[in-house]
Amino acid sequence: MTLLEIHEPGETPLPHAGEGSLAVGIDLGTTNSVVAIAREGKPAALHDETGKAMVPSVVAYPSSGGVLVGDEARLLMPQEPRNVVASVKRLMGRGAADLHTVAGVLPYEIEPGTGETDMVKLRIAGKARSPVEISAEILKALRKRAEAALDKPVERAVITVPAYFDDAARTATRDAARVAGLEVLRLVNEPTAAALAYGLDKGSEGLYAVYDLGGGTFDFSLLRLEKGVFQVLATGGDTALGGDDFDRAIAERMLAERKRDGLDDKVDEAAVKNALALARHMKEQLSDRDQTSGRLELSGLPSFHALTRTEFEAMIEGYMKRTLDIARNVLADADMGVAEVQGVVLVGGSTRVPLVRTEVARMIGKPPLTDIDPDEVVALGAALQAEALTGGGDTLLLDVAPLSLGLETMGGIVEKVVPRNTPIPVQLAQDFTTYQDGQTAMAIHVVQGEREMVADCRSLARFELLGIPPMTAGAARIRVSFAVDADGLLMVSAEERTTGVQQRIEVKPSYGLSHEDMADMLYDSLENAEADMTARLLTEARVEARRNLLALDAALAKDGTLLDAAERAELDQGRARLESAIAGDDRDEINAAAEALETLSKPFAERRMDRGIREALSGKSMNELESRVGE
Amino acid sequence: MDHFARLGLPAALDLEPASLDRAYFALQRQWHPDRFVAKPAAERARASAEAAALNDAYRTLKDPLSRAFYLAELKGVELPGDGKTIDDPELLMEAMEAREELHDAGSTQAVDALAAKVRDDMKASLNGLGSLFLAGDKPAIRTALLRLRYLDKFAEEARARRMNLERSSA
After folding, report:
1. In chain A, which residues have their Cβ closer than 8 Å to the Cβ of B83?
2. From the candidates A155, A190, A375, A495, which is the catalytic residue?
3. Under an 8 A CB cutoff, do A390 and B48 touch?
4. What digits encode the pLDDT tens for the residues A436-479?
5. Which fold has domain A405-525?
6. CATH no. of A22-242+314-398
7. Concatenated DSSP letters for A196-265?
8. Higher-pLDDT residue of A62, A525
């Protein structure tokens, strides 16, 4: 293929940048973040003075000024809840519609976006801040920690993202690193990084699954490990499912209990934050014991709440089931059965919940691997990859595009150009054509998702290819190319092949447009496969029928005189039947009406062809020329 | 360069998955963008294009069905576009009957049985296809591929049907 548009990643390494500086691996998590470094294939997490590797992903803008990150920020939560932000990763590349509430209240104060492509902003300590700049504060703190521990400047990093992060969230993560003064060597998918840490550690070979349940995201990936090659076969997940959801369930329950007991709370942002913090603590306690209790104080009124592990497990059962459904679908995508899986790696703090462990073990039929700390394993893998990228190394990571990428075609149908689980980097192209005679422009709408109809997918970008020379419908050849780079970022270009009119865009995602999140979309696509297919067939029938009507109208306008009044009336009647069929929802009727119209118009088509032949011959002989003049 | 040549493999339907993987991994070791992080932009661009072409070749050849279609294209076998009507009346009849059977299958077991039948059928068809390619019998290749395309679609429909049955029984 010659039409390759190579997208240059934004962070072009300068010739001398980073010499003498070190490259680290960073797991920028929803709840906690970790920075690690690898030397000669041995990764280690970097600790603070007290020996802790984990930095809570919490940022505070205290009323006294300055910025706090981590434990210090978390400590400020009870006193200044409005100045503290947690779980900001959930907002990366998201619009307000993607956010979850507790008792109808968000644990954030949202700044309305200024346009449809605006990422949500938070109002903290009286100032609007984007998730990108808040994440950048966490990255800066990690960078400082690394520089203190290593006593050298740190300017380059491999940063991990959930495999299921879409283009918007990946771009936002890359931007945050830039704000923090870090050059991103590569965005690596979290499950892949975890596998890297395990594989190199254990020298394992074969098929492995990674079940990664973090604070706010879930990923399930299937990898093949073979002689230093880490090949991702399939991946799936939900970027809005994690331990935070467990916390929310407990918090909702406590607020409901207070209401039941007659406490008239004004549930505001601060109340929600406090309830969530207590819920989280109770959840963690239930990992080691059968029951726990907590004291919640809102507006000076205390309440006491008891929770057993059995109750808690009943509350999160729906989430668990969903993760297992996703896991099964990933296995089906890779055409693999559980029997072929040699081991399953547990990643993410939420896999400490006992129910998660037992359910995963039951599904895979093997006890999960947990010997590397699930909180650190992703950062360790990222550190290994950072070393491999800067110092060389023999491992090779072959990753995939997590979500299908496609274009809107006539009738709102999605034409997939890059199917999910396609190995990246990749450049794939598809040819499209014009629909109407003389059409000179074509709208290109790029979408991400698994459903058949555009309305059910996430809209990534729109642009228009102009200057197509007027031709008959179907004559133009418009080639649309999708290039996904090794970071999973997309670039789209379009070209009219006969004239070379070209247009190229870097996809700038429309953050705020989606009302469903992507994971829901994938989930829905499986649930709605049958209905989708019916909708698609119906739309295709309509599009085809309209195309025929357009062609017939063009022919009638040109050669209508070939028909007598009765024939014309008959044809108009057939035409009207097809029109009304198109307006209805019965695919069989559309096809039947189209067929009937085709039969009706056959004599007309034959006469047109005869005339065409006659015209083509005209001018060839004097006789015919004379007869033409005589017309 | 065609996909077989790119991976240094003979253009044949018969292809050991292990040898495809071996060839692909070896070339990706050479061209994957991860190996070019510190290189000048032009070299990185070249590597990215090579790696992309390798990925395209690999995913096309890995699946026996897409490999068969690709090989047919290389050999100049003309096939109607995907989604076009079936022009073989016998196949049309078979397809309609099978669809009816699937529609009537009321349990996951019944759907599984149909899916298993289709899988075996596909395997047999693919096995037979190898010799047709060797003989260069284009009309027979065309007929066999159209049937395979239909079987593949049917398998997909069976999967969706099974999922719906599972969901409604859960």
Report:
1. 540
2. A190
3. no
4. 888 888 888 888 888 888 887 877 888 788 878 888 888 888 88
5. Substrate Binding Domain Of DNAk; Chain A, domain 1 (2.60.34)
6. 3.30.420.40
7. HHHHHHHT--EEEEEEEE-SS-EEEEEEEEETTEEEEEEEEEETT-SHHHHHHHHHHHHHHHHHHTT---
8. A62
